[in-house]
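Lab notes, practical 5.
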Amino acid sequence: MARRKGTFETGWRWVACAIFLVSFVFLGEIAKGPADTLVASLVLSLAAAAYVVGMFLLGRQGGRMGRLLRDSLALGGAFFLLVNYSPLAEYLAMPLLVRPDVDRADVIVILGGGLYPNSSLTPTSLERTLYGMELYRRGLAPRVIFSGGIAGEATRPEGEVMAEFARRWGVPEDAILVEAVSGNTYEEAVETAKVLRELGLRQALLVTDPTHMYRSQLAFQRQGVQVLPAPVRTREALRNSAGGRLRLFYESLHEYGGLVYYKIRGRI
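Output from the prediction step:
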């Protein structure tokens, strides 16, 4: 009888945990980020903390391996919930965001954002390319440099593919420059700065993602380029969906790691 009672109580605890998770996700869809409602964000954070405590209490039952498994699930679940349904990712990304300074410059520099294996533009590269083209059509610079070498499984340099897209959509050939040998942000800064020096150009509108802008700006400034930040999707950088927050969390950690590495190597 005692064993059946214990099993019954444990079962109800897991059912209560499942109901809590469903409620948590529902509440997470209501709170769309720190800018909307501070109360909802605080409730989400407290709910995530309660989830951790509850899962650890459940993990007290069973053998050593059972407790280890359930404790791991508790931490993993808490991490997933915190990142996806609380403003953690947004707050982590905020220090990386750079205020746009979109003004006239000598040139527009568009950094590559990756290619698919068939050498077509990824959404990131396409977005950067389109925004750079928009700046050109607004008359903010007479030339555009598309920067990026061969990356991943692609067979063509990113710079060439972006430039080809721009030509196809009306950017004149004499306005296009291509840097096609770089393999990372630092190399993009070094190789692009060489092109600018050869042409006697100094000030550049730099186009890249919001979280990538800070490190990129520092790398280009280290090479003597006067940077005017022109990040894409600035308003949308603080993502309003669960999947977007998870990606933002990853991007932010990647950038913080890159900043530390670049600082140690003297690249910024």
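Observations recorded by the TA: The chain has nine helices and five strands. The longest strand covers residues 107-111.
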